[in-house]
Amino acid sequence: ITLPKSFKMKCVSVFLLTLCLFVMGKTARARYESTTVRQTATKKSTIHVITDEEYNRKIEELITGKTKYGRMESMLYLPLADGHEIPVLALGTALTDPRLIQHVIGAAIDMGYRAIDTAYIYGNEKAIGQAIKAKIDDGTVRREDLFIMSKLWSTYHRTDLVEVACKASLENLGLDYFDLYMIH
Known about the structure:
Order of helices and strands: HEEHHEEEHEHEHE
CATH superfamily: NADP-dependent oxidoreductase domain
Largest sheet: 4 strands, parallel
């Protein structure tokens, strides 16, 4: 596939924005403890507690993202075997701070993202669904213009549980269908 130069530049811009969002703490930081049989001490990493002022600043950055960074005027899509198309860029939602989900999804859709990836195990399907619904309700996007992906968690891999898990995720998200449902 040969990409137009303008798209390559937009991809670089989106990549840099995504990288900046990650580096600047737009994603939640996890705290973990790790122990092994041979280890005598527990390793700990601390979580940075973000003040209300910092959260308000992050929300303001997300709200003004379209104005500040621009909007992708065209998204490159790849054809699938069944005739549908998938956007080449997607917003991943793992480890997204629950307090920022509405703003992250809103900013992504405003900036031209049309693919959103989520999963049951992320524990944020309801908030993501509400954010998607808000952008549909305000007329920014139609459901059929979005490519929503989710994943089946390993505890539901039994054939009799797949449909149950898929329907539960759809209900959590407030959607009628997924564009892609994968095994996680």
